[in-house]
Amino acid sequence: MNRLDQAAEKAVFQALKLKPGESFLLVTDKQKIEIAEAIAAQARKAGAETTTYLMIETLRPIVAPTRLFKVLAKQAKAVAYMLDARIEEKPFRGYMVKTATANSRICMMPGITRDMMERLVNVDFADMEAFTKRIIKIVRNAERIEVENAVGTKIAFSVKGRAWHSDIGDIGRKGTHGNLPGGECYTAPIEETFSGRLIISLIDDKLGRGVMEFERGKLARWTGLGVEAVVANIAGDPTGMIIGEFGIGTNRGAHICPNMLEAEKAFGTVHFAIGDSYGLGKNASPHHYDALVDKVTLRVNGREIAKDGRFLV
Of the residues 10, 125, 136, 153, which has the maximum number of CB atoms within 10 A of its CB? Predict the structure, then answer.
C-alpha cells in the first residue's frame, strides 16, 4: 500500500473501527475525491456497507440538509465528513455533528488534504494518546489557567468542574465525534471567569493577525479581517459570541498553517472557539469558530507547563 492507503487503513480500522455490515456514510467533494476513494476501499475491506455522497460545487455553500440527506444521515451507523472547509457551511457541519452523535459516530475532516492524511493520520496513535492524557491530568479541574504570549495575549479563566475530551483518533463508539488528524484535548471554560485578550494568528481557516477581547465569557471587541468575517457570518446571533472551547494541541507532527484542522493540533499552540460548547459548557449554538494562539506560555494553578511554545512536561 502507498502512504495514503496506509492512512486510510488507520482511519477505518483504528479510528472509526468499522465493522462488517455497518452502514457507513462518506460525505465528500471533488477536492477530496482521492482521499474518499482510499477510505471507501478500506471500508469495503472492513465489510461495511458504504454509501458515498458527492457534494457538487453548484449546490454550495450548503447551509442545511435536504430531506433525502437527512434520511441518510440518521440511518448511518458511522459517518466521515471531508468537505472543503467554508465558513458559510458551519450550520451544516453543526447539523452533521449533532445528528451523527445522536444516532451513530462521526469523523470530521473538513479541509483534509492528502499531505495531512499521509503525514498526520498515519502516525503512532499510542504515543499521541499517552501525551494527551498526561496534559489532561494536569489541567483537569484547574481553578485558574493563564495563557500569554509575546505579542500580547493575556487571558485567565477557570475550568473547574468541566469535563475534558481528548481527540486522539478514537471514534469507534456510538455517540463519539472527533477529527482526523487528531491530537488535542479540550473543554469549555467557565464562561463568567473568561476575561482578557487574545492575539490570534488564524481563525477558521482565515489568515492574518486578529485581536479578540472578552468580558465575562462574551466577545466584546475585535479587530482583524478574519474575525470580522466570522462576526459577520454570526449575523447578530448572541450564542455565536460566547466562549465555547479551550483546546491544547498535542500532535507532534502538526504545523501552524492556513488549515485550522491541522493548525489547532500543533505543539505549542492553544485554540479558543466562540459558539457551541459541544455540551461541555452552558452555550448551545449553530456556530463554532476556532481561533489559534501560538507560541504560548501556559500556566495551570501557577505551574508553568509550556513556555514560548515549548512544553515543559
Answer: 153
> What digits encode the pLDDT tens for the residues 188-219?
999 999 999 999 999 987 767 899 999 999 99
CA distance 310 to 266: 11
Contacts of residue 114, Cβ cutoff 8 Å, sequence gap at least 6: 4, 34, 35
The whole-number pLDDT of residue 124 equals 82
> If you count them, how many residues does the chain have?
313
- The answer to whether 187 and 161 have CB atoms below 8 angstroms apart is no
State the virtual CA torsion across 290, 249, 269, 108 in degrees, nearest 10: -30
Q: Are residues 128 and 106 in the same domain?
A: no
Secondary structure string (H, E, C) spanning the chain? CCHHHHHHHHHHHHHHCCCCCCEEEEEEEHHHHHHHHHHHHHHHHHCCEEEEEEECHHHCCCCCCCHHHHHHHHHCCEEEECCCCCHHHHHHHHHHHHHHHHHCCEEECCCCCHHHHHHHHCCCHHHHHHHHHHHHHHHCCCCCEEEECCCCCEEEECCCCCCCEEECCCCCCCCCEEECCCCEEEECCCHHHCEEEEEEEEECCEEEEEEEEEECCEEEEEECHHHHHHHHHHCCCHHHHEEEEEEEECECCCCCCCCHHHHCCECCEEEEEEECCCCCCCCCCCCEEEEEEECCEEEECCEEEEECCEECC
Nearest CA to 171 out of 12, 11, 16, 10 is that of 16
Domain boundary among 102, 120, 138: 120
Q: How far is CA 296 from CA 146, 159, 249, in A?
A: 10, 18, 11
Q: What is the mean pLDDT of the chain?
A: 94
- Final residue of a domain: which of 86, 120, 154? 120
Amino acid at 23: S
For residue range 237-257, list pLDDT tens digits in order.
999 999 999 999 999 889 998
Q: Are residues 176 and 283 in the same domain?
A: yes
